[in-house]
Amino acid sequence: MDYEDRLWQFVSDPMEGTLRATVLRSERSIFEPKGDAPRRGEPFRYFDGKRSSGPSSGRAPRRATWRYTAASDPSVALRMGHELWSALPPSLRASLDGATPDHPVRIKIVSDSRQVTDLPWEWLTRDSGPVALDDSVRLVRSIPLRFALPPLAVDGRLKVLAVISDPKDEVRIDVLRERQMLEQAIRSHGYELSVLINPEQEQLVGALASEPHIVHYVGHAGSSVDESGSLILPSDEGLTHWIDASTVARVLPSSVRLLCVGSCFTAPNYDLRGLLRFAYAPPSLALPTFVTNQTQLWNGDRVLDFWRTFYHTLHKTGETVEAIHRARRALAGAGGSACEWGSFSAVLRDNSGVVFTRQPAAGSLDEEVARRLSSRLANDLTSGLASMPSQTVLVDEHPVGLTGSKLMGWSRAPSSVDSPGPGTMTARLIDSLMDPSTADK
Q: How many Å separate Cα 6 from the centre of its chain?
């Protein structure tokens, strides 16, 4: 489906201690040079009055102002949803104007502030109702890249590797019920499903050698003092072993284009915050798009309703955004509360959320992997080169391809040289890397 993108970017102002919000049309706008007048945005005032002291000035508190483990009351979701909407700057609210079911607006929440990303944006509610259930809107989160990562062309069956973790020194889950739910949700739609019960890290790495397309984790999560998230597998003694995002990124094959990390519904999660924070791992880590949940769910039928619709839509469209939207609406239509359908979040790490195309591959799998790696390299160069001093100029403006012996020749120019700034040179370099026809522009 074609969407009209609106990126709601929330940025911390360290000088003022405030949060400011801006509406952008694309991820590329984030990486383009802003000149001498950077975009400041408008104050985001959700946290006004929520500090224990000090004036009401839009300042962000030191920690999130709601408790994940207590978020089971639908009235809390309704109240917070209205508060979030009221706190949005007028430009963000107006960015939904004109959206229709035939031409939906895709809202992407973008921020590097933990106070912002920890908020339950899926509960956002205006006078006409919850935004996430509006058929003219698609509400997701995004870790922006300058260049979108290409989807994987799949001709045969989509392969799902399900991992159910139940360390013996944590609150035990009902593995049988969790497995039955996954099998009912996934197998009926033509996926090839493999299930791992309580695998140690080495066993998981071995199973990943089968190159699944989707990994679906069910189990506990943890959140570290640095506010990063981890998944929890058993150690060789059956005790808890925290697996951070960098470890997963190292062992994940390039065939995996979607990570579903869900809390168990048969036991209280150790730390639900860890699931969403795991999905918000730094963009430098080669991790795919995520679907996760942020509140404790207890009704197995509701969880089944969501995942069954999600996997059915994903199989038909290959689009994470459309799949989670339809699954939320299906769950709400089945009587699910905002604490249930609003628990599920999509965190895009490829810009588009299109993880598969149901067609024969244009080339070999190695060629598809190479295209994806090219996109990742271009995004890494975007981040790295943008920080270079402004007197660094391009000497050889004819980059060779990724298979060549070098990418580019660089030299330090005298300070008197009137050269483009690093943002301009970065854009020129990366554009020519992705599309050689732009190399002489």
A: 16
> Is residue 415 one of the residues assigned to a domain?
yes
**Given the DSSP bridges, would you call strands 4-13 and 105-111 parallel, antiparallel or unpaired?**
parallel
Domain shared by 171 and 124, yes or no = no
> Residue 157: left (phi > 0), alpha (psi -120 to 50), or beta?
beta
Report whether pLDDT(144) > 80: yes
Half-sphere exposure of 137 (CA within 13 A, CB side): 25
Q: How many structural domains does the chain have?
A: 3
Identity of the residue numbered 86: S
Residues 291 and 434 in one domain: no
Please count the other Cβ atoms lying within 10 Å of the Cβ belonging to residue 16: 13
Do 158 and 196 reside in the same domain of the chain? yes
408/379: higher pLDDT: 379
Look up the domain containing 409 and give its range. 387-441
Decide if 118 is inside a domain.
yes
Please compute the mean of the pLDDT values over residues 330-340 and round it to a whole number: 94
| Cβ proximity of 84 and 119 under 8 Å | yes
Rounded Cα distance between 258 and 287, Å, is 9
- Whole-model pTM: value is 0.81
Residue 46 clears pLDDT 90, i.e. is over it: no
Q: Is residue 362 part of a domain?
A: no
* Residue corresponding to tokens 């949005």: 88
What mean pLDDT comes out for the span 151-158? 90
To the nearest whole percent, how much of the chain has pLDDT over 90?
Answer: 60
120 against 383, higher pLDDT: 120
In 268-365, the DSSP E strands lie at 289-293, 344-348, 356-357
Residues 241 and 318 in one domain: yes
- Do residues 190 and 157 lie in contact, with contact meaning Cβ atoms separated by under 8 Å? yes
Q: In the block, which residue shows the tokens 């489906």?
A: 1
378 assigned to some structural domain = no
Q: CATH no. for residue 161?
A: 3.40.50.1460
- Last residue of some domain: 110, 136, 162? 136
- Both 265 and 333 in one domain: the answer is yes
Q: Residue 200 — pLDDT band, cuts 50, 70, 90?
A: very high
Q: Is it the case that residue 193 has pLDDT exceeding 90? A: yes
For residue 88, count other CB atoms closer than 10 A to its CB.
Answer: 19
| Sign of the alpha-carbon torsion through 327, 328, 329, 331 | positive
